[in-house]
Structure to design on (570 residues):
């Protein structure tokens, strides 16, 4: 309770806690920006996925709101600085929006057709039960994730033989799984899959498993991974099933069901893209694309790589057109503004790659046109994602300009910090190590005896070690800190200088080692520690500048919070 009161008390000290003048769908007013209930719910659900909002405690709610207010304060500052009109921001926003709308459009025109609401509901209802099963996987060449060399026909014959043997009861299923299964985990778990619910296995497998009774063994069941012989061991009510979780799980169920239809979906999408281009009479201007590729190649040969090296007329070259729209070279430059331009640079001089890029952006524009007609820009998920992205991006740009770019430690500050905190820059003790790694423990013990008898350790390493890399180095690791080489370096420090030890277990090997000189712990010199000192001083100054900036923002912009909405949010 004290923690909750402390958080609320902090908010009271900073902001106006009142519902006065704020509507019931408003959580807070931050300068000129508004945090709506939908915005708040979106961030809460992202921070606490799968958790009902009513179950998120008061301290967590206020903590998230405080975080959001800081971001919105920074977004206000970004707009006042004009950062929302820069080409970099507009480019990154356009790219994010294209991906966001593209995904939502694909979901509506493809996924929702293949996975209707009643199928999602049916899959959810099937999660009321869970099954415990074992399986034996027989793979063939060409099956998913398969390393098997047998043909599909040979795999089926073997699977049928194993199924008959399992059903006879003469040999335990566990033994058969360990002997025959191509599932890499079968050697350890003997085919045990534990309990699983509907939707966790591929369709063919789960349909078979959930249709069986405990104790029953299936005939071979074919999936993309090969042939499975399934033994159901138990069936029970799912202890985690909750009818109230449908809305939270709906998206995950839809995604899983989509993967079951993925091949069909991709064929539908190819046909849909073709129809969309025909509807808008969209076409690439291939002559201009070839011309731009030649132009870009010539400019790059002369050392001109950036968009500013292109004339206004060149930037207006039309690369694609459709009903009431066109794509210019400058549109490409905008989409690839900033660090992304390096990727476009490589494509500009290649007509085929440039054509692919233009085609992708043209398709994205057509999709946006259709999405607007369908009202997808008003979709809750799209609106909240897009608004959140804008706030996050603007706050980051403002932070960079007002904090990062204004902080640079001076040489005097760096030197002064070292003189005051030299003991923070310790160079840990190191010990010199040679090692011989072997898979067999008895062989490692034999090598240890030889080494203790005085045989040359480097020659023993050349002859016996199974670590190919250190074999070339005659087993020499160099100087290592206490934990740098795990159990090897830890034991080396225990023994001290010029000792022979082992075998110790390290990375599935038995290691015999020899120690050499021990370098004691020392304080790094100013020159040695300089990069580390500079980072610490800069981080300290960044923290101070950030706190100062946030205080300035809280003075500059009024923040009103609808406490009633925060406390009663469901």
């Amino acid at each position: 309770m004290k923690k909750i009161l402390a958080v609320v008390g902090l908010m009271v000290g900073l902001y106006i806690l009142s519902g006065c003048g704020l509507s019931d769908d408003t959580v807070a007013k931050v300068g000129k920006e508004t945090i709506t209930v939908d915005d708040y719910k979106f961030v809460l659900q992202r921070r606490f996925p799968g958790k009902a909002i009513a179950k998120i405690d008061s301290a967590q709610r206020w903590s998230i709101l405080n975080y959001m207010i800081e971001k919105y304060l920074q977004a206000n500052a970004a707009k006042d600085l004009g950062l929302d009109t820069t080409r970099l921001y507009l480019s990154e926003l356009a790219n994010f929006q294209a991906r966001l709308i593209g995904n939502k459009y694909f979901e509506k025109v493809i996924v929702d057709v293949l996975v209707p609401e009643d199928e999602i509901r049916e899959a959810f209802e099937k999660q009321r039960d869970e099954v415990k099963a074992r399986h034996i996987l027989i793979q063939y060449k060409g099956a998913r994730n398969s390393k098997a060399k047998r043909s599909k026909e040979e795999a089926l014959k073997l699977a049928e033989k194993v199924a008959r043997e399992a059903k006879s009861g003469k040999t335990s299923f566990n033994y058969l799984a360990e002997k025959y299964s191509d599932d890499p985990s079968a050697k350890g778990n003997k085919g045990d899959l534990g309990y699983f619910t509907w939707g966790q296995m591929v369709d063919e497998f789960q349909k078979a498993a959930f249709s069986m009774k405990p104790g029953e063994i299936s005939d071979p069941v074919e999936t993309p991974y090969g042939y499975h012989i399934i033994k159901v061991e138990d069936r029970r009510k799912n202890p985690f099933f909750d009818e109230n979780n449908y809305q939270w799980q709906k998206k995950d169920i839809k995604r899983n069901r989509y993967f079951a239809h993925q091949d069909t979906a991709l064929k539908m999408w190819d046909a849909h893209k073709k129809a969309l281009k025909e509807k808008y009479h969209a076409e690439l201007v291939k002559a201009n694309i070839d011309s731009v590729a030649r132009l870009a190649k010539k400019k790059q040969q002369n050392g001109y790589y950036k968009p500013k090296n292109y004339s206004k007329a060149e930037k207006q070259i039309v690369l694609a057109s459709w009903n009431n729209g066109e794509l210019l070279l400058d549109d490409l430059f905008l989409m690839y503004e900033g660090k992304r331009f390096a990727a476009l640079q490589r494509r500009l001089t290649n007509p085929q790659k440039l054509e692919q890029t233009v085609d992708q952006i043209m398709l994205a524009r057509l999709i946006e046109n259709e999405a607007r007609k369908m009202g997808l820009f008003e979709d809750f998920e799209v609106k909240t994602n897009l608004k959140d992205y804008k706030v996050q991006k603007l706050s980051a740009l403002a932070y960079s300009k007002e904090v990062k770019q204004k902080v640079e430690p001076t040489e005097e500050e760096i030197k002064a910090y070292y003189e005051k905190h030299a003991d923070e820059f310790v160079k840990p003790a190191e010990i010199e190590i040679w090692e011989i790694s072997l898979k067999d423990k008895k062989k490692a013990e034999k090598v240890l005896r030889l080494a203790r008898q005085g045989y040359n350790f480097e020659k023993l390493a050349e002859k016996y070690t199974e670590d190919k890399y250190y074999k070339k180095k005659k087993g020499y690791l160099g100087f290592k800190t206490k934990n740098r080489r795990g159990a090897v370096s830890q034991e080396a420090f225990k023994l001290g200088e010029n000792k022979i030890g082992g075998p110790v277990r390290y990375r599935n090997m038995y290691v015999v080692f020899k120690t050499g000189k021990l370098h004691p712990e020392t304080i790094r010199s100013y020159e040695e520690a300089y990069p580390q000192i500079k980072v610490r001083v800069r981080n300290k100054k960044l923290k101070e500048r950030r706190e100062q900036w946030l205080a300035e923002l809280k003075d500059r912009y009024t923040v009103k919070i609808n406490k009633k909405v925060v406390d009663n949010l469901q």
Notes: The longest strand covers residues 226-237. The longest helix spans residues 526-556.
